[in-house]
């Protein structure tokens, strides 16, 4: 009759590992099928097929992808459980055999049930002090080894029981039953299964990007895929992890939230909020899928998603920042919510396209929209609370960008904010070492939660201020920090000489376009004038000219016809004086920021209602002039 002792001695872990390999192969197959369907089928059709038939087909495809998600979650869970239990029972077996060998070396005999028998004592031993001492020592050794054997047997039994219960938590019948919240329930069951075997103990808390990255690099590829499949919410939110891993994890989260929202919509039938939430999530997924067939630097990556937060939160990237020479992080402002994420994607792709045209040949660019905070709903807000609440998350995110990048790249990082987003940028940049950025851009800022540009932990010459002539954000003065449009705020606009701007910095402002209702809409929503009596020229046919807003210099009192010659810098070099003095270098070991054309700053003689002079050379958004008939770009007239 077999006993636990004999069964453990004879245990072979290979069949369990083989079964785990097969389950993992199934999970990888459906994950690859999902990727292929999105890139080769779904994305091309989304961009070309419209109508009722298309909608029905897309719904079928999405249902298929959700079924793939169910299979992936359960299969990956089964693989992890089997591998983990096999390893633990094998470790118990190793401990047992070591204990048995030690018993044999001590002259002790282990019975078939694992009990150690001690040799009988002779009558003479009682009268021999040395023999008595030896006997007691042997008895102590026997007790120690018996304890090791018992522990090994218990560990093996516990692992077997935990594995059986964990596998029982996985339900393969999701494919044949219409289960409400199926993706969420399957994820919960898989998490419960892993909790049964205490699988998550080594996962970091996610607060330190460097620690996150170190943990991730220490995992095998199979382990990494398991964490993505089984803990997508945790992995997707970890700054410092590779972009592709976070994107895959967050798409799983998005699929589950859509599945959840569909049932919520049915329960709350007629609820506008429930339907709006579902529409927002489906529109985000559609935007992601539509770009799935692009190359790595032109795909859209989902780096964060939390529809349960107030107004929703999402982080999307146009291009992979891990391999970009130029990276821009854009923080949107007031009235931004989950429903606006698809428009944010369009805007980021537009910024990326312009930056790529002006960057050095071969340089790659990634542009990220970071809605990782609770954006206030109107301009009347006069508190920095939301900005300060999101500041630490933004700092952690930009640090994570640096950590996750290829060791052969040190991307030029520009952080830009619009409206209240500049307040978030200011709050993040001014504390705990700042944002690790090379340039900071503030568009339509109501205040940056600081008194001076020098408080942003960056060279003030790399702080850029942009605003519309009649932007109401300028009227919010004091409550959110000093107004950047005033000369005494400092930054690049405080100098009377032309200032340099990085490729990503200049093109970010050049390509910026707002939606109706935003604080810049009054400036961008209708034809503007360069001066009060001079109409802006028509938009030309150059790809950059098709973008309606650009930076141009207008020296004080001389009009556009006196625009100074644009200074040129060699990409990545700066001027000779700059290189000699080290000006502009962010870190001793950081390469010189890549430079493109230096855009002089337009001058303004405006004063506020109290007669205080606004800064003389704040960046202004203007229409780009049409190209000359010869094919070159026209100069300001």
Q: Care to describe what's here?
A:
The chain has 637 residues and is α/β, with parallel strands linked by helices. The protein has two domains: 4-167, Up-down Bundle (Substrate Binding Domain Of Dnak, Chain:A, Domain 2), CATH 1.20.1270; 294-528 and 543-620, Rossmann fold, CATH 3.40.50. It has helices at residues 4-9, 14-46, 52-105, 129-169, 182-196, 209-217, 221-230, 232-236, 243-267, 272-290, 341-358, 385-404, 420-429, 503-511, 521-524, 576-581; strands at 109-110, 116-117, 300-306, 313-318, 326-331, 365-371, 412-418, 439-443, 463-467, 529-531, 534-535, 619-620. The strands form three sheets. An eight-stranded mixed β-sheet has the order 3-4-6-5-7-8-9-12. Strands 1-2 form a two-stranded antiparallel ribbon. Strands 10-11 form a two-stranded antiparallel sheet. Strand 10 and strand 11 (534-535) form a beta hairpin. The longest helix is centred in the N-terminal third of the chain and has 54 residues, at 52-105. This is DUF1023 domain-containing protein. Residues 627-637 have a biased composition (Low complexity). Residues 309-476 form the DUF1023 domain. Residues 509-541, 555-637 are annotated as: Disordered.
Helix content: 40-55%
Shape: elongated
Backbone CA Rg: 32 Å
Proper CATH architecture of the largest domain = 3-Layer(aba) Sandwich
Order of helices and strands: HHHEEHHHHHHHEEEHEHEHEEHHEEHE
The assigned structural class equals alpha/beta
Main β sheet profile: 8 strands, mixed
Number of domains: 2
Which percent range describes the beta-strand content? Answer: 5-15%
Q: What is the number of beta strands?
A: 12
Average of pLDDT:
74
